[in-house]
Structure formats: C-alpha cells, structure tokens
C-alpha cells in the first residue's frame, strides 16, 4: 500500500503538553543536524493517542537518520544519551522523567531457527512499518505536522476493534513467536476481536511458543494478568492453543467438575475466570486467583454421585509453586502465591463464633503481610449464583476483616511473642541455652494469644515459667555444650 494514499492528520495537542514540547524540540534538533531526515513517533503512543487512552511518558521514534546523526541530535536536544542497541540502529536518551528511543529505519530478515534478525538500515518508512507486528502498531505520527502515516489500515482496525497482523500473519508469528502472546494481550486489553486470518495463524503457529524463553513468556503473561480483563486473555490462550505452551495446567480445568446428571456444579474454568476478574490488579493476587483451584482435576473424587476435591488447597499450593518455578518467577513471588493458594479456603470458613484467640491464630498463620490479599481472594472466590449464599459469605468475610482490624487496633498481632525471651529465661533459671527454653516460650506465647497473659507482663510470665519448669521436669534437660549465640 502506498504511504501517500494513507495519510491523515491527528492533533498532536492530544499529547501531554510537556511531551508535545519535548517531541517538537527533538524534531527541531534533527532538522538542524540533518535537514532532510524524517522523524516520526511510532508504536504504542500513536495507537493510544488515536484511542484516547492514557499515554505513557516514553517516546519511540523512527528516523531515516543513521545512529551517529541520531546521537548528535539527542545530545543537542539536552538528553542524557545511551547506546542501548546501536548496532540495531537504536539510540536512547533520558529527558527528566521521559525516556526516548530513536531507531533508524530498518528491514529485518530472520534466519530459520534464529530469533535474532539480520538488520539492514533502510530509507523507507513504509518498509520500516511493514516489519511491525499488528496494524494498530504500524502507524507513524509526524510530531511537527500531526500527519499520521498508516500504510496498513491501522486506523480502520482501531475504529472497528480488530487486531490484525501486518502482512502475512503466519510469517509475523514465525519471525518472533512472542507475538502470539502479544496478540492475545492486546485483544484482551483493548477488547478487540482477532481478525480471522490472524487468529488462524496464531493457532497454527502455537507450538513455536515452546522455543521462547520462559522469562519472555512470563513477562507477557504478567502483562495479560494485570490488564483490565485478564479472563478474556486466559480464555483466548486456551481457545487458540497457546496455553498448552505457556500454562498447560489451566486448560485442564475446563468441563471437569460437573456432578454427573445434576448440572449443579459450576465449571471450574469459568469460575476461575470470574475470580480472576474480581480481584484487584496486584500481581501475586492475580496469579493466586488463576491458580487457586488448579489442583481440582487432580483431586476430584466421585462417590455415590457426590463430587469432592479434598486437599485441592494443599496440592494446589504445590502445583502453583511448580508452575511459577517453571516460569522462573522470583522466589518471593512463588512463596506469596503458593501460600495464598494453600490458604484460600481459610477465610471463607470463618464463623462468627470464633474467639479472639482464634482470630489471632488465623492472622499469625496467614501472616500480616498476606491478610489483605487473602481476604480479597476470599471475596472474589464467591461466585455462586445463589444470592443468599453469596451475601452470607460476603458478610462473613467482612465480619472477619472487621474483627482483625479491631484486634490490630489493640495490639500488633504479627508481633505477638512470649513476654520472656531466651535471655530472660536463662537469667531466671541461672543456666545456659538448651532445649529446655522452647517449651516455656511456646507456652507463654500461647497464653498471650489466648488473652490470658499480657504481652508485656513479665512478672506474671515468670510465675508461669517457674511452674511449667517444675511440671515438665525441664531441669533434667541438659544445656547445649556450645552456646554460640544467645537465643531470642
């Protein structure tokens, strides 16, 4: 398609004022360094400007200027320049809190079996745009005139809510299979429909996703999960065959839990997607929502026509840790998600008859840092169609949250401990460290949890310690031979 026949104008006033000034200033410096050079904004900022969506402060430009001229122009514009990918034609610069990348027009050729393209610099904007993934990302904006160059119909696809690959879709996905996940992410985030040819090519090329590093797959999945409609993205992953190469345990949730002949059990997959959309967009929480019932296929048991999933929380925690480990997630995220999955049934089991000590034990078991996410997961997990049951569980979780807040106002639950530490006990009984200490500390801590002993009441704690020391015959337990550290 001829670029000249696909030019329209958009007001650059849609850009934030400081971004507009920066883009114009950079364009002026390019004009001075190389007067005949083209310079266009490209990528997400052009798409989002046309959509009226929130704009990032990062600017991506494409230019006919070569990297040395680009470097000079960015220096002249006052940027802190860095050569992030000079051999691929990209020069970067930081202007305050805005990051700018300028890439020379280029054409790419992929060698079979390699994900790294052979790059040649070009002189043609249309050829540069032709190497991009989707038509909505293959538009360019002249920051000086507001002209939009749109050789592949990106504006029409934006208007019609269509996600379409540039040119031959199968070729685009074979060039970089990560584009398969990007297709799903964009369709999910923008609520666009996949063009039929593009969708067919995604399914055909799905197996190529296995060649992509798990870190790159992980990063795309996280962007999808943190989007406004993660359920749509996960459904597309499964429908198009991509889940088999990214989240193979998830499709197994489909259609596996209906009670024979009754139709009363909701489908676990549909339930999971509902829970996912009902959770706030926090990464660990979204992962936990996706994986909270992941072990139901493995724990399903039917007896006398009744379906059960005993132990799916415990086994689900193990599976969640494995799945996230295979995606090379950091250990702290694996730990957080694993614990949320393992504990996800606890809050919904709350009954108003719980004593204060039971609530304290719940907080101590869960951990103060996980309570907010666990309660959010519990609220989201109630998707039953029975309104009265949904309302009852919602009231129960709200009551639990209120009681936790009340107890927190009175005490720091997460820091509940024995009023006497190891040093106190050694001084009290005039002996060294050893296995005799822990039973006393555990008992004193239990009394604090039960509300029978004040957290700072050392005098009462000493009396209890003396009695317990005698009752348990702890005097007969030896001290450790080597006291390298004082127990706390």
What does the model show?
By secondary structure, the chain is of the alpha+beta class. The protein folds into 4 domains: 3-160, Beta Polymerase, domain 2 (2-Layer Sandwich), CATH 3.30.460; 167-248, Orthogonal Bundle (cca-adding enzyme, domain 2); 251-415, no CATH class; 417-476. It contains 21 helices and 14 strands. Strand 7 and strand 8 form a beta hairpin. The longest helix is centred in the C-terminal third of the chain and has 24 residues, at 387-410. The N and C termini lie far apart (75 Å). The relative contact order is 0.05.
What is this structure's SSE topology?
Layout: E1 7-9, H1 17-33, E2 39-42, H2 44-51, E3 59-63, H3 67-76, E4 80-85, E5 90-95, E6 98-104, E7 106-109, E8 118-121, H4 125-130, E9 140-141, E10 147-149, H5 154-160, E11 162-163, H6 169-175, H7 178-190, E12 193-194, H8 196-205, H9 214-225, H10 230-239, H11 268-278, H12 283-291, H13 296-299, E13 301-303, E14 306-308, H14 312-326, H15 331-343, H16 356-366, H17 371-380, H18 387-410, H19 422-429, H20 437-450, H21 458-471
Parallel strand pairs: 3-6, 11-12
Antiparallel strand pairs: 1-10, 2-3, 2-9, 4-5, 5-6, 7-8, 9-10, 13-14
Brief synopsis:
This protein is α+β, with helices and mostly antiparallel strands.
List the main descriptive attributes of the protein structure presented here.
single chain; 488 residues; alpha+beta; Beta Polymerase, domain 2; cca-adding enzyme, domain 2; eight-stranded mixed beta sheet; disordered C terminus
């Amino acid at each position: 398609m001829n670029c000249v026949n696909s030019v329209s104008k958009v007001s650059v006033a849609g850009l934030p004022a400081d971004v507009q000034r920066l883009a114009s200033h950079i364009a002026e410096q390019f004009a001075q360094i190389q007067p005949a050079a083209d310079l266009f904004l490209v990528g997400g900022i052009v798409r989002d400007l046309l959509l009226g969506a929130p704009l990032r402060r990062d600017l991506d430009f494409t230019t006919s200027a070569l990297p040395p001229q680009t470097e000079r122009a960015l220096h002249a514009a006052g940027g802190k320049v860095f050569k992030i990918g000079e051999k691929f034609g990209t020069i970067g610069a930081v202007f305050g809190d805005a990051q700018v990348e300028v890439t020379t027009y280029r054409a790419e050729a992929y060698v079979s079996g390699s994900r790294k393209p052979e790059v040649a610099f070009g002189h043609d904007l249309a050829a540069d745009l032709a190497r991009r993934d989707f038509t909505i990302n293959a538009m360019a904006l002249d920051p000086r005139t507001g002209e939009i160059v749109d050789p592949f119909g990106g504006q029409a696809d934006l208007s019609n809510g269509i996600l379409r690959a540039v040119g031959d879709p199968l070729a685009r996905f074979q060039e970089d299979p990560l584009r398969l996940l990007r297709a799903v992410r964009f369709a999910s985030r923008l609520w666009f429909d996949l063009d039929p040819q593009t969708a067919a090519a995604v399914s055909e090329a799905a197996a190529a996703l296995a060649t992509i590093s798990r870190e790159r797959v992980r990063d795309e999945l996280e962007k999808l999960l943190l989007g406004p409609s993660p359920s749509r993205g996960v459904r597309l992953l499964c429908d198009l065959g991509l889940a088999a190469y990214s989240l193979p345990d998830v499709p197994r949730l489909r259609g596996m839990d209906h009670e024979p002949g009754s139709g009363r059990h909701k489908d676990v997959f549909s339930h999971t997607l509902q829970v996912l959309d009902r959770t706030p967009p926090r990464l660990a929480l979204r992962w936990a929502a996706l994986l909270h019932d992941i072990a139901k296929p493995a724990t399903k048991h039917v007896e006398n026509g009744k379906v059960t999933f005993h132990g799916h929380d415990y086994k689900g925690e193990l599976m969640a840790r494995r799945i996230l480990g295979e995606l090379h997630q950091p250990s702290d995220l694996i730990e957080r998600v694993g614990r949320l999955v393992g504990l996800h049934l606890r809050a919904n089991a709350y009954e108003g008859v719980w004593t204060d000590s039971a609530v304290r034990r719940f907080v101590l078991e869960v951990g103060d840092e996980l309570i907010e996410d666990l309660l959010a997961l519990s609220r989201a997990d109630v998707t039953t169609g029975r309104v009265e049951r949904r309302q009852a569980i919602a009231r129960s979780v709200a009551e639990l949250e209120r009681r936790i807040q009340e107890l927190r106002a009175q005490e720091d639950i997460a820091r509940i401990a024995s009023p006497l530490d190891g040093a106190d006990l050694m001084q009290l009984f005039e002996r060294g460290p050893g296995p005799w200490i822990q039973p006393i500390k555990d008992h004193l801590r239990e009394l604090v949890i039960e509300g029978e002993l004040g957290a700072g009441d050392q005098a009462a704690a000493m009396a209890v310690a003396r009695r317990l020391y005698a009752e348990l015959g702890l005097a007969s337990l030896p001290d450790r031979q080597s006291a390298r550290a004082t127990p706390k």
